[in-house]
Amino acid sequence: MVRKSELIEATWSEVNFNSLEWRIPGERMKMDNLLPLSKQALAMFEELKFLAGDSPYVFPSRHGYRRPISKTTLNCAVRTLDLNVRDFVIHDFRRTASTLLHEQGYNSDWVEKCLAHKIGGVHGVYNRAEYLNRRREMLQFWADFVDAQIEEGRKVVIGKFGKAYEAK
């Protein structure tokens, strides 16, 4: 549920394999973001750690392991997947996750915290809760949902105009 730039610029120093968390520092975005890792995310990070070798980046560039992949790499990769989805951009994964999790009844504060959205007003000023355990459960639900879609061969996403498309 992170932004594309947060993902491609991720470094290994941000990932804690012991506490199963990814802490994205505020220097890389508008504010610090602590994300609990699902089982699937942990497995992916473990595999990526092996593949990254000595690079400080989770996704090192093939043009030099001391820098991350380019900002266009993920969009190019998605285009090669033959998703048969019109008007799709990487950011649509965030919209899809937010919509599904809200429809499933998850607390909006938890969802917004995972999206690293700033909560405005008095609520945002006074509420400093991390909801770490609840968000861990919620992100595990999301990861399980994504796995189920892959296993069943369905590729459902919500496009940039808010329309859901299913690949055939």
Q: What is the architecture at the second tier of CATH? A: Orthogonal Bundle
> Largest sheet at a glance?
3 strands, antiparallel
Strand adjacency order, main sheet: 1-2-3
Q: Find the structural class using helix and strand composition.
A: alpha+beta
Number of strands: 7
Instruction: Give the integer mean of the pLDDT values.
Output: 87
Low-confidence stretches: 158-165
Count of helical regions:
7
CATH class: Mainly Alpha
Listing every helix as H and every strand as E from the N terminus to the C terminus, the arrangement reads HEEEHEEHHHHHEE
- Please report which band the strand proportion falls in: under 5%, 5-15%, 15-25%, 25-35%, 35-45% or over 45%: 5-15%
- Kindly, what is the distance between the CA atoms of the first and last residues, rounded to a whole number of angstroms? 25 Å
Radius of gyration: 16 Å
Apparent shape:
globular
- CATH topology assignment: hpI Integrase, Chain A
Helix content: 40-55%
Which key features would you list for this structure?
168 residues; 7 helices; Phage_Integrase; globular; 7 strands
Verbal overview:
The protein has 168 residues and is of the alpha+beta class. It has a single domain, classed as hpI Integrase, Chain A. Helices cover 42% and strands 14% of the residues. The chain has seven helices and seven strands. The strands form three sheets. Strands 1-2-3 form a three-stranded antiparallel beta sheet. Strands 4-5 form a two-stranded antiparallel ribbon. A two-stranded antiparallel sheet has the order 6-7. The longest helix is centred in the last third of the chain and has 20 residues. It starts with a helix and ends with a strand. About 5% of the residues have low confidence.
